[in-house]
Amino acid sequence: MVLNEWETGDTITQIAANNRGIRKGTESEIGNITTAENELGDITYNITEGFLNVQIGGGSTDTRGNLTTLIGADSTIVTGVTTSPVQVKDIDFIKCKEGFRGNTIVIVAMLKASANTAHLRVGHDSGGSGDLDLSTTSGSYVKVTGFVDITGLSDDAVHTFEFFLENTTSGIATMEQLEIYGI
User: Fold this and answer.
1) What does pTM read for this prediction?
2) Which domain holds residue 113?
């Protein structure tokens, strides 16, 4: 299998560029693409999981998925013991064409509650904690994930994501790992 190369005279059309396009579908729809239709370098957008895949071999499962950019991470353990959101972390990034310029941020964290429900709330640019609410009732660490649309954030500017912890009653919300990816 050889990656098609651009040649003088190739035309970019609305349907595909040099027989390349991005196919969009659910995980099962993408899995049903026949081997004969897969070519090295094909890109698909998995709407079930919310990420891009690139074809690295001839079979329908020969893909490398989750094409995301790690924007920031923090492994410092923090706790929240109040019933209102308290800011415990923030991570800055520059949205620009030379770095990350996507439209979606993926938040991944390990969270636990000592009692009732622990909440990890996310806000940006000092706008409060209303962009995303991730929660768990587990007494052991569990992975919580969510997406934030950043289409409206300006380019060539520093943006800050703020992270708030709270527990619905007198329990303790604890977060041990936080990662931010861009799509």
Assistant:
1) 0.70
2) 69-182
| 117-140 pLDDT per residue, tens | 999 999 999 887 789 999 999 999
Q: Are residues 115 and 97 in the same domain?
A: yes
**Residues 142 and 162 occupy one common structural domain:** yes
175 in Cβ contact with 109 (< 8 Å):
yes
Q: What CA dihedral angle connects 132, 136, 139 and 140, to 10 degrees?
A: -70
40 lies in the same domain as 109: no
Same domain, 109 and 54: no
Phi, psi at residue 52, to the nearest 5°? -85, 150
Virtual torsion, Cα 9, 11, 17, 19, nearest 10 deg: -70
Distance CA 179, CA 108 (A): 5
| pLDDT (tens digit per residue) in 57-81 | 665 566 666 667 889 999 999 999 8
